[in-house]
Amino acid sequence: MLNEFKDFIAKGNVMDMAVGIIIGAAFTAIVSSLVADLINPIIGLVIGGIDFSNMYIVLSGDVPEGASLEAARESGAAVFAIGSFIMAIINFLIIAFVVFMLVRYVNKVKAAAEKPEEVAPEVDSGPSELDVLLEIRDSLAKK
């Protein structure tokens, strides 16, 4: 059973999947930083200088006026975190777009690899050996 497990792990598909998961996790961290550190401040500036990541609606409980989302959550109040939700949507859209572009590129590479190469036109290299022998026979027969 241990040998079967080693064979399973050694297969290319499992290793490719593991590498993909690791790179995907790292890419998700980059996209999250992009959204939180670059896109949200721009959106906040557009909507009037509001800290977009701290936008929330208190559903129940008491939260001091102007408290951050973290403070509202720590106070035990039920909050609807609009900013966090919109950040998650933006993260998803960016990641989905990048994955789409990668799949599109891979499909183009596969299609190019499967496409048969154009065959060069046949070059006339002169008479074949058989043609030469037939010509010699014919010329000997005429004499």
TrEMBL record:
Compartments reported by the entry: Cell inner membrane; Cell membrane
Transmembrane segments: 17-35, 42-59, 79-103
An annotated GO cellular component: plasma membrane
Primary site of residence: membrane
InterPro entries from the UniProt entry: Mechanosensitive_channel_CS, MS_channel, MSC/AndL, MscL_channel
A molecular-function term among this protein's GO annotations: mechanosensitive monoatomic ion channel activity
Keyword field: Cell inner membrane, Cell membrane, Ion channel, Ion transport, Membrane, Transmembrane, Transmembrane helix, Transport
Membrane topology, as annotated: Multi-pass membrane protein
A Pfam family it matches: MscL
Entries under HAMAP family matching the protein: MscL
Sequence similarity: Belongs to the MscL family.
NCBIfam families documented for this protein: mscL, PRK13952.1
Subunit note: Homopentamer.
Main function: Channel that opens in response to stretch forces in the membrane lipid bilayer. May participate in the regulation of osmotic pressure changes within the cell.
Protein's name according to its UniProt entry: Large-conductance mechanosensitive channel
Native source species: Litoreibacter ascidiaceicola
Lineage, uppermost ranks: Bacteria, Pseudomonadati, Pseudomonadota, Alphaproteobacteria, Rhodobacterales
Gene: mscL
